[in-house]
Design a protein that fits this description.
By secondary structure, the protein is an alpha/beta fold. The chain is built from nine helices and 14 strands.
Length: about 250
């Protein structure tokens, strides 16, 4: 399984991510913060499935641009997967002819821009040799993490969350767990903000990953750019050999 964090900067890619997207096996996107800015556009055309963890802007910002960029006349369009609350947000707050043309209505009346698929907790989606299972997380809006499985590996993308439980229970019973990609948004000095906004800081992050075997590769992501150095320093103080901060543009193979 191949996973790449997409950069969200113009010019030289930076480790810091302002918007959140990852691409799996070139064809599946986890979140759409920057997929609509991916160059060359042929890379966007390869993405056929977009899984949205939740409705916050840094995770959906470029979805309208992406759908516009890859549009081709005919029924072959990308599928967008999200929980009921996120789909409601897309319908009412994004594709409403005010913020962006109503691609959902146009998809029903004309040549489609997207196929909307509603995710149900713990109900897997199977496509292209990969199984994607959504698991609810603890954030300030309904949010899902994703467990990705192929014949050889399991990788979990645990998006925006405060301390959570169910996904660790599911992973404990999952075979071939290779890596967990986990939110760490604020430094310990701002734990109060992490608590209020439904995120993790390094001390909470450390508590969460204690539930994982030492053999599992842990990748921290979603570090807020304005606190990046402080979070980085605190994460490096966690005693775990296979812990690292996600690097944009790097191809991780599990």
């Amino acid at each position: 399984m191949k996973v790449e964090f997409l950069p969200s900067t113009v010019g030289t890619p930076a480790t810091k991510q302002f918007c959140i997207s990852a691409v799996v096996n070139d064809t599946i996107a986890i979140d759409a913060g920057s997929i609509g800015l991916l160059w060359p556009v042929e890379k966007q055309l390869q993405i056929r499935h977009v899984f949205l963890s939740h409705s916050h802007l840094d995770h959906i910002a470029s979805l309208p641009l992406f759908l516009d960029n890859v549009y081709r006349l005919g029924p072959d369009c990308p599928a967008v997967y999200a929980c009921e609350a996120t789909i409601k947000c897309l319908r009412e707050d994004v594709f409403n002819d005010r913020l962006w043309p109503d691609f959902i209505r146009l998809s029903e009346e004309e040549s489609p821009f997207l196929q909307l698929q509603t995710l149900k907790p713990e109900v897997p989606v199977k496509l292209h040799g990969l199984t994607v299972t959504p698991i609810p997380l603890n954030h300030i809006v309904p949010t899902m993490g994703f467990i990705l499985q192929d014949a050889e590996s399991t990788v979990a993308v645990v998006s925006d969350t405060s301390p959570t439980h169910r996904i660790w229970e599911v992973l404990a019973a999952t075979k071939n767990l290779r890596a967990v990609i986990l939110d760490c948004s604020f430094p310990n000095s701002h734990r109060w903000l992490a608590d209020k906004s439904g995120h993790l800081c390094p001390e909470l992050f450390a508590d969460e990953i204690q539930r994982l075997p030492e053999s599992v590769h842990v990748i921290a992501y979603h570090l807020k750019p304005c606190f990046f150095s402080e979070i980085e320093h605190e994460l490096k103080a966690i005693r775990r050999d296979n812990l690292e901060i996600g690097v944009t543009g790097r191809e991780y193979v599990f």
